[in-house]
Amino acid sequence: MRVHELAKKLGTTNKDLLARLKEVGAEVRTASNSVTPEQEEKVRLLYEEEARAAANPPAPAAVAEAPPAEPEPPAPPPEPTPPEEEPPTEPEEPAGPIIVKSTVAVKDLAEYLSIKPNQLIAQLMAKNIFASINEKIDFKVAKEIAEKYGVVLEQEKKGAEKKAPPPPPPEPEKVVKELKDSEEDLLPRPPVVTFLGHVDHGKTSLLDKVRRAHVVDSEHGGITQHIGAYTVSYNDNKITFIDTPGHAAFTAMRARGANLTDIAVIIIAADDGIMPQTREAIQHARAANVSIMVAVNKIDLPAANVDRVKQQLQQEGLSPEDWGGDTIVCPVSAVSGEGIDNLLEMILLQAEVMELKANPKGPAQGFVVEARLEPGMGPTANVLVKRGTVKVGDAMVCGPYWGRIKALISDTGTKVRTAGPSLAVKCLGLNNVPEAGAEFVVVPNDREARTIAEERIAGQRIEKLGTTRRPTTLDDLLRQTDVTEKKELHAVVKADVQGSLEAIIHSLSEIQSEKVKLNFVLTGVGNITENDVVLASASNAIVLGFNVAREAGANRAAKREGVEIRLYNIIYEMVDDIRQAMTGLLKPVAREQIIGHAEVRQTFDIGKTGRIAGCMVSDGRVTSRCRARLTRGGDIVYEGGISSLKRFQNDAAEVREGQECGIRLDKHADYEVGDEIEFFEVQQVAQEL
Question: Is residue 478 predicted with pLDDT exceeding 80?
């Protein structure tokens, strides 16, 4: 008997039963593992003992009855006390001026003025100043705009003490508020499953058998040409399937931020085994960080070899569950229907272990699976609901488009009134066709939906004018990495043959470092394709090629997405470049090198320009470009640069030990006889892996 079957029989959860089985010495890892009759009897006795202990709680200790006490006379009511007068509140002092530097960023100025950045950018454009949200503008322009809003800006004076910046104004409300659900409102939802795999391995045929419909007959050439979402029922449980034309669409939607899938089922033909596109599908699923299952299709063919497929899976790091691993592998046949029920049962079991929940109440939110312009219907969008319930008549915002839902059509073609979490429906009523992967949200009314859509259109127009694309070249990746985070370098590697690829991966993996991690998003054989570039853009990676070429679609995609492609013919050059790139991710360490000391022997006033310290260099040397640290009685009084260094009446580049000199420190004039000045240079030392 399997763990999940025993859990249903005992009326407990899979997690609790797994923990109890481990207490009695059973070696089980997942809910689909089997238990022996002895283990079943032990855990059953354990639950029965707990039930008996709960049914017979220990009796509470008897308490001796005390004689009733005589009732006390009622206390007189307390005299009412006059209410205390609250001290008068002092009127708040008006906020002082905002201190800024000679330039101020557009985003910061918008916060000071409590307006949206796109409104400020529009005013700047009216003045023929084209600046993006992160660019800085001159103080005079900022002051002129601030006066219109009654805000006083003052330029920071050099040498003055820096005042604490005023607290930033509250951020403007987001266009669409993020809804938070309480634990009481969360209910179990159906899992969303995506079929991925090599072409002609039976993805759509298998889904067709599950749905007991004829999806394949309507496709051109028997190959899936579009993305579809379908919901099926099995044992009073619902499962939503997303059938994609390949892993490229899976990653393209993920690149737009659409996290649609809970479980990715890799479809592998039992006669072909793992193919190059199968490996890419596995790597795409891993990059999306979703749960992975495997369905070995076409087991009815004479050349089928399920054990060979399991052996290949183990080489790919997906160890089958019946071989002691964690990956669920289900042999199936899309022709005869063998193993289909077991596959659906394993999907529901995996979903139960993942504890998928959502709030069916409130306004709906979700993602667009596909959208098109249909004759007689207008713009239609196949949407997948992630939370809430979408209803006919709701006002919807989807990307920069909006509309009121006129009709909802299920995957079977029937009209429905509502659709809850994890269900896919076709929506009619938008004013334009959104792109796949766009997020939709239901808002209270049409006016708010129109306002949100117009603001998004204006924001997109401003972004096109001033913003830059997300950096995906190697140099940009080096610049954008955060110092506080552990460094990671993501790479897509393509080689001419499998032997070269294995040698490259082995050589690159030998670059050991505790500070930088090299992550292979995708490794494969063949030319660099458009799919590789899309995956690199979604994963913020670079593309490395060894003895391969770039296809025409890859070049266009690389220019469009801003992804860098590097080609090599010598493996050592690739390894050296990656080692240098990993080293470049580490910020150099600043180290001080003491070069000399000097003692202040006398001070000289030179009028309005300040004072000069007459010094004797006690050891080392002093240069005009070094930095200085003035100490008095063991305490540091000043640290900064040297404004001038003179030897007698002439400027000096360097003064050595035993020589006299005049020193004027930058923005400092407080010298006393006996002060000691320490001179040092700051060197940037590159870190090592």
Answer: no
